[in-house]
Every structure is written in C-alpha cells, then in structure tokens.
Amino acid sequence: MLTHDTYYVPAQSKWPIIATLGMLITVFGLATWFNDLKAARPESHGPLIFFVGGLLLAYMMFGWFGAVIKESRAGLYSSQMDRSFRWGMTWFIFSEVMFFIAFFGALFYVRHMSAPWLAGEGHKGIAHMLWPNFEFAWPLLNNPDPKLFPAPKGTISPWGLPLINTILLVSSSVTITIAHHALRKGHRGALKIWLAITVLLGWAFLGFQAEEYIHAYKELGLTLGSGVYGATFFMLTGFHGAHVTIGTIILFVMLMRILKGHFNNEHQFGFEAASWYWHFVDVVWIGLFFFVYVL
User: Fold this and answer.
1) Could you tell me if 146 and 288 lie in one domain?
2) 241 — pLDDT class (breaks 50, 70, 90)
3) Which of 79, 92, 204, 242 has the maximal Cβ count within 10 Å?
C-alpha cells in the first residue's frame, strides 16, 4: 500500500460514459415496455432495448470494478483512498435511504391524505361528489373509478411468504455479520461457509418474492393497473427486490474473490461495503413488511 502522502489518480476511463449510456438505454427500454403493455401492443421493442441496456450495464460493472480490484491488489491505494471509498459508500447508502423515504412518503400521502380526501373525509373539497359511492379503506380494494382501475380481489397476507422472506433476510443479516467477524479473525473456512449461506438466503428471498408476484397477478388480480394500492405495492417491493438482486450479486462476487484469496484482516473494505449495503436492504425490508403488508 502507498503512503498517506500519495493519492493514486487513475488514467482517463471509458466506464463512466458507458455507465451513463447503459442506464439511459435500460430506463428507456423499461418505459417503452410498460407503455406498450398499457396500450396492449402485440409487438414491443421495449424488452429488447431493456435487455441491451442491462448487458451494457453488466459489461460496465465487470470492467470498472475489475479495474478497481486490480489497482487495489497492485497496492496503488493509500489510506486516504480507503477513506475516500468509505465516504463514497456512506453517501451512496444515504442517497438510497432518501430514495426509499420518498417512496414511503408517497405511501403515507396516499393512505392518510389523498385517498381519504377523495372519499370526502372532513369535507375538504367536492371530490366526494365525483365518486359518491367511494368509501376509503386500506388496503384499497374499492377504487374511485373501478372501470378505469379494476381493484384487486384481495391482498397478500403478511403471515405467509412475506413473513418467510422477513425471516430469510434477518437471518442473512446475522450470517453476513458472522462472516465479517470470521474475516477479521482470519478464519477463512468459516468466512466462506457463512458468506455462501448469505448468498443462498438472498436467492431464496428472490425466489419467494417471484412466487408472491405470480400469486398476486394470477390469483388476486393485483397489478400495476390496480389503482394506487397496486402501484405503491409494486413500486416499493419491486425496487427493494431490485436492490436485493444487486446485493446478492455483489455478495456472490465477494465470495468468488474470497475463494481466490482476496481480503485479509487489514484490507477488506470491498467486503465491508457489500455488508453495509446488505444490512441496508434488510432494514428497508423490515419497514416494508410493517408498512406495506401488516399495517
């Protein structure tokens, strides 16, 4: 490792512009896909565009993170660079916290302000005159205009798959902590086992969530077009599922690096950053479980 007086500055890189293009193409493809689904177009280029953008992002992540790993293994990073990484990860997680706070805020606004107002609560306007038969209750199974937004037949019980997924994620938070302690103590065997268990728990969570989505769509009629309840449900659980997917992939990469002999009790920030991110998605899920499923 370099001394604290030296700060490594890498050469100009193509990865930032590739990341920008990848995100642009991915979001454009997803928007096209959803719009075509809403318009019931039989042929849509949205999935293909989305897939191309995803491949470009995967290529960027493989190349960019690979370059960072090589630089770190070559001893180009000083303690000051290590602090930069830590601050960068801290602010990244903070931005993600704000991201989900905005979504939880939308849920709070719908449940406690806009939907009750549409039902005429407190006589805050004349909206209740537009839908005189609309009565507010959450979960919202009686939309103001059921012809435009057909309400779902029911809701998902929190004591089935959601509870199982809660147990899985809380358990994975414990296993990643045990793995982290094993790394600090130099117990490589225990580190590999507990990290592998964490990855398996992450994939199990995603499998159960996929099963839950299939049940919601096919049996309950709970979709993105089911009104504000369906929109907020899939917005919150969907984005969280995407974060769990990313986190599981990151942990799998950490496992592969550990199998190659990377990390030790002194140089382990890559693993620490992955564990921070995993604890973050665990905490978000606990909030989701109570505010989306239980309350």
Assistant:
1) yes
2) very high
3) 204
